[in-house]
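Course assignment 3, question 2. Fill in each field.
Student: A.L.
Task: Predict the tertiary structure for the chain below.
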Amino acid sequence: MPKYSLIKNNFSSGELSPILSTRTDVAQYSNGARKLLNVIPLIEGGVKKRPGTYFRSIMDGAKRLLPFVSTSKDAYLIILKEKMLLVYDPRTNTVIKTLITPYLAAATLELHYVHTRYVMYFTHQSYPVHLLECSEDFSNWEFRAMSFDIPPIDEVTTTPNVALTPSDKELGMTISLIAAEYPTWSNTVTYFQNDRVIYANKTWRAVTDNTNSAPTVNNADWDEVTGSEANVFTSAHLGAIVEINGGHVRITQIVDPGKVMGEVVVELTAVVQAIAKSWVLKTAAFNATLGYPKCCTYFKQRLVFANTRKFPNKIWFSRIGNTTNFLETTDDADAFSVVSSSDQSDSITFLVPQKGLVALTSGAEFLIGSEGALSPTTVQVDENTAYGAYPLTRPCRVGNEILFVQRGGERLRALSYRYEVDGLVSPEVSAVAGHIGEMHKGISEATYQQEPESLVWLVLGDGKVASITFNREQEVIAWAQHDFGGAALSMCSIPTELGSDYCYMLINRKGKVVLEELSFNAYTDCQRTITMTGDTFDNLQYNFLENLAVYQSSNTFQFYIDYKKNGDQYTLNNITDKTQKTYYVGQGFTSEVDLFPPELTQVPQSSLSNKAKIQCVWLFFYKTQAPKLNGEILELYTFPESPINSQKPFTGRHLYEGGDWSDLYDVKLTITHDKPLPFHLQAIAIDISINER
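Answer field:
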């Protein structure tokens, strides 16, 4: 009857899908677990209790959290509500500014944004582009619609059949453009669709191309037009570009239907009348009829927009260093536009800078770049992979990789540039943990908390949370699930100048939306600090919590306190010293590590069907109190002094002996922890006997 000694000292594969419970031939089996709940797999090995949360504020109506990061020293949290934006200072835990926005509740969840220095741009297909701007000392904040010097231009332009005369030509001047009268209809002229003529003292518009077809009410070739339809210029042309005599004029004022004022943005070659159809009227591509851009980003000093209702595959790049100028020419520094198209492409869902500009669509992933400087004449658009991106979950950057949710909303991929293939690759990150997205209605949001443990936090569709300990260098991609005792709505991480990153959560607890801050220093959720004399405190500020837990902590010791509830009062048990003391109160949670049975042979052989008995288990802990193995609490202390004294968190190894014969496949190894105390399992070593008969 052979005896084996095994050790499990890393969880670098995290929680594995149940359908991998028999895949003993892959490395992830020995480095993974059947279940990791409310624990964090560590890059160094082992697992520790997930961070608890501090209560920060009730935020009724809050929908989403965004980062506003100028520097790691000056980072702020943006809280979005319906038609409202709050600027939150994480250093003082206060709202420093409240601003009005046009966005309805549903739109706040669909907003795209990009931030640079003191400005953050917001885009949504149903709203004009807006921006949030602050002063250099962060004392003044403003939210307003973006004003374009020259807006992106609709690719469908018009060439009116009327002469137009400019008053001047010099760059930067404000000049007038005066249109002549529409021509009188002639039976010898060929008229094209949308041409306008005067006939019988009325204005007519050509419905089809025609010659020698006199305009009449009964003639299908013509329509009589009145009002604004008979005008050369209308209010819709404000901000439009007139291309005339080799130059460009931006319309700034509509004087009357035949006269406008405009600014010369590209110098004209001459101050002469432009004959009919020799000048071009270019209207803005962003408006209520054509739609507004869904996507935005910054790339190589250019502000970039993409995906309107009319042009779902089109991308507009601004002029270098001028985010309000989208005048397209062939000059290297000027604005330009491109279209992502292939047999797999669909509307653009996200824009993300990488080695080039990555355009994620619902059908494929494109890389937009150039061999040299990016310019209107050198830009290239290449399809690289064809997985498709889920349109509702913003990608998350981790190092030089972009994590995006695959079309379908349940699986996660990591997009990066690989020099060996000279292109993008998108391996799946959720290959061994696909059950998490499937069980919890997909992945709604992702945020990366770099410090202290390199964690990607995922808000799931049903309000639960998952984490990925992500470190490519150490080959750690470890999933775990988390239950914060409510429905998580949004999570956001922002950097700090020193130490752990801030990480905030919006969570719905019994109908109250609460802003909470994650911290490994908190051992309960929605934790508050009470300083009181006596042993009784009120329930009113905790009535939206369940499974209340109370503990005390010092630099050396930490211990939990039992209590009794009497109506709206909590009374702490066994408090004899009723001088002023500090207590920590929040919602308790249980951590669980459920291990797969060990495989003791090599494929194609298997020991899972053999009878086995665990002779002993060595558990290696670091600063841990009150863990349980298979439901039995482990007595970690030997009490060399007085057992009445408070005990320090335990560091070392603990021996657990005992076990019964059973099939190895059914061997149970579950470590749990349900107290507001520290927990860190470094490794577990097992002595196991096998009956091979």
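Instructor remarks: DSSP finds three helices and 60 strands in the chain. The chain has a mean pLDDT of 91.
Grade: pending
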